[in-house]
Amino acid sequence: MKLNLIQLLIWEVIGIRYKLIFGLILLMFTLSFVHASDTNASDILETHNDTSVLEAPAIPSAPDKPDLVVNDTIYVEEYNIDEYFKDNVLGTEFNDKIFVFEGDFNNLAKLSIKASNVTIKGDGAVLKNTVFDVSGDNVTLANLKFDLDSDLSYNDGAAIIFDGDGLVFDNLDIDYVAELNREAYAFYGIGNAEHSRNLRITNSRINFEGHNNNRNVYNCAIKVINYDYAVMENNTIVTSLPLKDVNHGAHGTTLDSDFVLSVGVENCNYLKFINNTVISEVNFRQDSPHPTLDGLLISKCNNSLIENNNIMMSDFVTYPGLDNYLYGIDIYNLNNLTVRGNDISIITTGGRLSAGTAYPIQISGPISGVNITRNSLYSFSNGPNIGVYSQNYYGGTELSITYNRINVTGLAGTHEWALVAGVETQDSNSVVENNIIEVHSVGAVGADDNIYGVSYRQSTDGEHRYSIQNNTVFSDGFKSVYLLSSNDSTVSNNLLVSYNQNAKNGYDGFGYGNIANHNGVNFQNNQVIRAFDYYANIYNNNVNEENGRYTYTNPTNNRHVSNVIDGRSINPISNERRTYNPLIPGSSEHHGTYSEGELLPVSTNPQERSNSQNTGERSFNGNQNSNVPGSDSNANTNNVNGASSYARSNSTDATPSDTGLNSLAGEAVSSGGSSSVAKKAFEIEDINKNEFIPSIFYVIATLILLIIGYRRKNSNSN
């Protein structure tokens, strides 16, 4: 009995030992596989970015969200906006607060601000069909993005409508596509002339698309009335608008006369419109008597400044032979305005003889103290065209046009409305001096056609006094200046450089019609010079430091150079006479290269070329290379337009890459990738195969020991 107990104890110890051995074997077996996998995985990771998964940096925790109210700054999201905009109205209990809008605000309609001294700033905020009505004073909206494409008639069609004092709209991004035949504005403000002042619209981007095609409703990106000391600065305003008729009143045009505008301002004294970019394009032409679009209309804004703006307009909807009426800056009924340093260009395919306009600047009286200076004006149309047009039909005009660069192209003719001019001054009193003007006609120019640098060609009532001096005009015509009539005027020292082959050098550059219509006119030294003589004179009078003055001389062939080629020593490839130049691709469908006397044809069928490029085979100029087992590996089989040809390629094309023999690296190389990835893939597969053999022996040995231990334990129990 005692012996049996001892035997059982021994066998139990042996069983525990076997279990330990078995556990060690399993541990070694597991580690062997883990080692192989880690080795392969780390190699792959090192191939790509030298960083293993175990070495990846820890993910930082998300920052805490700010409290809803911090030092009078209130953080607002869509879910809690009702706590502050009760029934969509921010009341006076929130005066002197700062709000930060975060996230998206969708379809909230109109948010009214009646509180004063309020700032609303966006922090990644996007307002989808959500707009503002600002009636409080000293309100600032900044850093907000608007995405609008629905009917906003509940806010008079405006993204932002306002009438408060001391308002600031800064760094706003407004994308507004108006519905068809709906009234629409990005900014719309009608202030109180005695109360509303100091409006600022700055650093904002407006993309405004209007479609009031068939109704007389207003579509304007910016429309502001009754705001003295307003500033509009550093904005980008892009508009796409239809052409609409203008509703002229009995006393002249006002802001409400135009149904489409990029920018319209009225009754805003001391306005500053500076450093803005205005881009306007036409998207629809109404079939009407005078389809019109303005870039900037300014009316009744005394003591104002328009400076350093870039205004571009285009109309490619109106075909040649149809009239359209485009104006870059349209000025009405004001005193003391400076228009300085602006770059204005208008390009249109529209216009016809005696009908249509594409005027960078238009001025209509009554006006006084207007100074148009140092601007760059460009315009092209197929109808009448003028760089600066000014008229006193509704009242007297007194202005100066100086130091501008004007380039105008249109269609000149003999009718008084078929006029192409740098300046048409139908003014009571004007100064036009020191401008550089270039005018051209899209048609041939005759001696009686109306094309001038400066003109008063279309008659208006009243007296006309002019000082037109020191202008340089480059023209297809014959006169630098033309005046129907004048009183106590001076026309002198104006130079015409004519490109017309019938122009004659002389001093008759001033055209005055019937001299009896001029009272006290003084004109002298208005020179005409042909363009060839003008440029020749410039170059002949330029001074060279080494050789003195430049002079034209006929070139001489001092070295007896000849362009005759002696080809007698050149041996032709063949005696074949070709009807095409084999050196010029495309001169024949049978161009290419010769190989062993055979011509390689090139397919002219785009479909065949695209098919050859998409087969995955090597192709060149439509030829396919098929390496077929058992065939000549260096042969190209070509099938072009149903005709097959056979040509031997060079050995380089047919030799596969060494890397591609044993792995996928060949594909990696051919696609521009590194061969190291494919090489690592091969190494992983090879390592897995080598590790598999010793692993089998571990498994077999473990099974044998388990069987022996089990049998001994059973026999001992028995």
TrEMBL record:
Residues 549-675 are annotated as: Disordered. Keywords: Membrane, Transmembrane, Transmembrane helix. The keyword DNA damage does not apply. SUPFAM superfamilies: Pectin lyase-like. It comes from the Archaea. The keyword Nucleotide-binding does not apply. InterPro entries: Pectin_lyas_fold (IPR012334), Pectin_lyase_fold/virulence (IPR011050). Coiled coil: none annotated. The chain crosses the membrane at residues 692-710. Residues 550-561, 602-662 have a biased composition (Polar residues). This is Right handed beta helix domain-containing protein.
